[in-house]
Design brief:
Layout: H1 33-46, H2 50-59
Length: 61
C-alpha cells in the first residue's frame, strides 16, 4: 500500500505536511493570574479556547 510521499518520510507514511503559511508558531505572552482568569471566562462565553480568543482579539480592527 503506497501513498503520497512526504518530505520527511519517503514511504508516504504519516500525516501530510502543512504549507508554511498554515503552521502556527508558539509565542509566550505573560498575564497576571486575574487577567488570565478573565480571558478564560470571556473565551468560554465566546465558545473559543483562550488561545483562539486572544488571537481573535489581537487581530481585530
Amino acid at each position: 500500500m503506497t501513498g503520497d510521499k512526504t518530505e520527511r518520510n519517503p514511504r508516504g507514511a504519516g500525516r501530510k505536511l502543512k504549507p508554511p503559511d498554515q503552521k502556527y508558531k508558539s509565542h509566550n505572552i505573560k498575564f497576571l493570574p486575574g487577567e488570565w482568569e478573565k480571558i478564560k471566562e470571556l473565551a468560554l462565553s465566546a465558545g473559543l479556547s483562550a488561545s483562539e480568543y486572544v488571537r481573535k482579539k489581537a487581530l481585530e480592527r
